[in-house]
Amino acid sequence: MIQGTTSNAGKSTLVAGLCRALARRGYRVAPFKPQNMALNSAVTADGGEIGRAQALQAQACGLQPHTDMNPILIKPNSDCGSQIIVQGKVARELNASEYHAYKPIAMEAVLDSYHRLAQQYEVILIEGAGSPAEINLREGDIANMGFAEAVNCPVIIVADIDPGGVFAHIVGTQTLLSETERARTLGYIINRFRGDYGLLKPGVDWLEERTGKRVFATLPYLQGLHLDAEDAVNGAQELGNDTLLRVVVPRLPRISNHTDFDPLRLHPAIDLQFVHQGQPIPAADLILLPGSKSVRSDLEFLRQNGWPEAIQRHLRYGGKLLGICGGYQMLGETIDDPYGIESAAGASPGLGLLPLSTRLERKKELSRVEARLLLDEQPVAVKGYEIHSGVTRLTQSLAPLLDAPGRDSGAISIDRQVAGCYLHGLFDQPEAIKQISRWVNGEGCLGVDIERIREQQLERLADLLEQSLDIDALMAKLNSFAQ
């Protein structure tokens, strides 16, 4: 089990890299994260929903993602309330204290999924959540040491040296662990080091003597690693000399599945900007309204930050507007949440840019989808996934954005400036980006192959681990613990 001294220590990336490295060596390996809190999720082969990091780790193993790989997914829809996904399906809405009381039930699902995976694979690479040293969360823990003790698995703790304080993080974490938890901790990995290792080595020697634990590796800072982010929106870009398309996305408080836009961010000729609260809204060719876990509250955020006026100005000057999932719902006339699925029960007016209305229902749509994009006379095959509670209906006839038999086909306005659909992953197809860019400004900018990029980055990550970490020694240590 890989745990971390902090959030963002590199657990997800390390597990993905180890998954690929072990798979290349012929191990039957699978990822597992007992409990994940994230708004970036993926639809599994068995029709459920898991954290996007575990879907990427499954790809690293050469597997289709499965709900057993992340049995508890917590999707916050407010500062104190979350939707709880259990083994891929919505179970209930709980606040923090209610979830704390629910943990024993959640642990049953966690152990059920883990044991099912353990019967199929010889290696299970488990990812913890946050830090095991959060003393206020120790009681009933299912995400870190509580789970490790329940299944008697060894633990390696990773710490991020880049922001500083790595020795304090490691020693402090070990100090706050119980005696049995320290005993199952085999050692540490220091992540994101840059500089002269000779200057770091005395500190590593001191750390091993102080803790009695081995530092298995010091991993270098890996520049330009392009893998799906679990939580934080990644806005880093390397633009080329010629910008063919300018795209703006509002950074919504409850933005979900923002990895939709990675193929745009990684394109050298597409300038993608996430606009945060209080920032000026720049001129653009295309405004994208992203998915949201709390559509009505994020719509209010847009109103408070001047987006409706900016969108109207953008459209007057010939700009295009595209909404994905929650952004598609925002484009309509009304959003009705009679059961309080995402927030307090009630209805809100939409932006009124497409003649459609949305009603949030208790049943959640989770589907992998194949369709054709209809923005011009030559339809383009696209595939992706849908994750939404809303049922959207047109209030007057419009042309569909997609040819998707039996599914919501989205819509495009009569003047062809405003469009929307439920399909996540739309930009993953290079030809889809080409058609969308032709619709926006006539440029026909062929997209990047995001799947090929993911594979290249997983290979790069595994190569780094092979160079920096003695994987044979690590596996021997793990096997000796099991015996």
Automatic annotation (TrEMBL):
Keyword Lyase on entry: no
Domain CobQ/CobB/MinD/ParA nucleotide binding span(s) in chain numbering: 1-225
Taxonomy, superkingdom: Bacteria
Key words, A-Z: Cobalamin biosynthesis, Glutamine amidotransferase
GO terms (BP aspect): cobalamin biosynthetic process
A single MF term (Gene Ontology): catalytic activity
Residues forming coiled coils: none
Active site annotation, chain numbering: 325 (nucleophile), 424
Physiological role: Catalyzes amidations at positions B, D, E, and G on adenosylcobyrinic A,C-diamide. NH(2) groups are provided by glutamine, and one molecule of ATP is hydrogenolyzed for each amidation.
UniProt cross-references to NCBIfam families, sorted A to Z: cobQ, PRK00784.1
Membership in a protein family: Belongs to the CobB/CobQ family. CobQ subfamily.
Protein name: Cobyric acid synthase
Species in which this protein is naturally found: Aestuariirhabdus litorea
Upper classification of the organism: Bacteria, Pseudomonadati, Pseudomonadota, Gammaproteobacteria, Oceanospirillales
